[in-house]
Amino acid sequence: MFDRYEAGEQAILVHINFNQQQDDGDDRDEFAMLVDSAGVSNLAMVTGNRQSPHPKYFVGEGKAQEIADAVRRFEADIVIFNHALSPAQERNLERLFQCRVVDRIGLILDIFAQRARTHEGKLQVELAQLRHLSTRLIRGWTHLERQKGGIGLRGPGETQLETDRRLLRERIKAILRRLDRVAKQREQGRRARNRAEIPTISLVGYTNAGKSTLFNRITEAGVYAADQLFATLDPTLRRIEVADVGTSVLADTVGFIRHLPHDLVAAFKATLQETREATLLLHVIDASDERFRENIDAVNVVLEEIEANEIPTLLVMNKIDALEQGEPRVDYDDEGVARTVWVSALTGDGISLLFDALSQRLRQNMVHYQLRIPPAACGRVRSRLCQLDCIVREEFEPDGSLLLEVRLAEADWQRLVKREDAELNSFILSH
């Protein structure tokens, strides 16, 4: 659809520091990792300092000429900026460099396009790409302003540019309709899990924090995991068993990143809904990253944007194998509630502690009762409790009464009380 410059794999990178107090080297390293994740070769990185973006070239005219010289010297095919550029700035830079220019948003969209595997993931990426490109249509053509007669496509007096914009709008509407159907299907699955009182645990965290490795360690699912940004794009759900809680659902989701494009957040609304509806969030953090606190803040910003910041969260400090004195442990708050678990998803150290913490956090909605069932009700009540698989211990007394120790979800107990009449509460000895 777009008559564009031939995209290559040899790139000049551009990073401008707008903070005069410090040189953001870690941000440059992350930028280089993004480029590497996209499969592009890094020929050189041009850096500089500015108080504010230049309206025409984003960088100053002298710096723009420096980049143009680097393009010719290294015979680069593409220039990638670690910043968001306006359509006009991209157009002006392409005209100066005589090669394709991509900003940070376009780079992330390209990585997502490579990673998408499921039908839903591909639709979401295409939606984000179309929304991003819709404001940049004019850049890709040299003949958009003249009117052309098109059989069955063009209205009277409609230019090529107007036709392309109309086709884009129609395609976006079609994708939104299909994603709406996917969202309804996901909602049905969530409602079914809610009816069955199955807790959902959602893995969230900065990209490359080790979420998929942890997911594989817990579930043995074998999902793709790699030491690269955005290795996971499509969400994966697996059942796990948690002590004193029972069956739960663990969801592996896309990683977050600083300055995550708003188009992506909007496009992946259906996927991120798994996070919004979770019972508990496992916030996975790369403990070996010196900027892990900034990464935590970046994830919290996205969680707030998708309205998931109020969900109970358990911090998981991962990659302790990369620390000099990394030992698995659990940190508790003043009330004795597990808040942080230190683990290594790669080696498996601390995973048992993680399950203990999950059990503690999830069973806060559980009840633990000692029951004494009279002989007349033993068979009926015991049968119901066996169906819920909640009997911890049982013992018959000489008079035929049954002593039971049960542990189950509070919602299950309330339903049982409603079904068996309120007399069930009279069987409680202690809790």
TrEMBL record:
Residues 199-366 form the Hflx-type G domain. Keywords: Cytoplasm, GTP-binding, Magnesium, Metal-binding, Nucleotide-binding. It comes from the Bacteria. It is found in: Cytoplasm. Signal peptide: none annotated. Gene3D superfamilies: 6.10.250.2860, GTPase HflX, N-terminal domain, P-loop containing nucleotide triphosphate hydrolases. Its main location: cytoplasm. InterPro entries: EFG_III/V, G_HFLX_dom, GTP-bd, GTP-bd_M, GTPase_HflX, GTPase_HflX_N, GTPase_HflX_N_sf, HflX_C. Belongs to the TRAFAC class OBG-HflX-like GTPase superfamily. HflX GTPase family. PANTHER family: GTP-BINDING PROTEIN 6-RELATED, GTP-BINDING PROTEIN HFLX. GTPase that associates with the 50S ribosomal subunit and may have a role during protein synthesis or ribosome biogenesis. Monomer. Associates with the 50S ribosomal subunit. This is GTPase HflX.
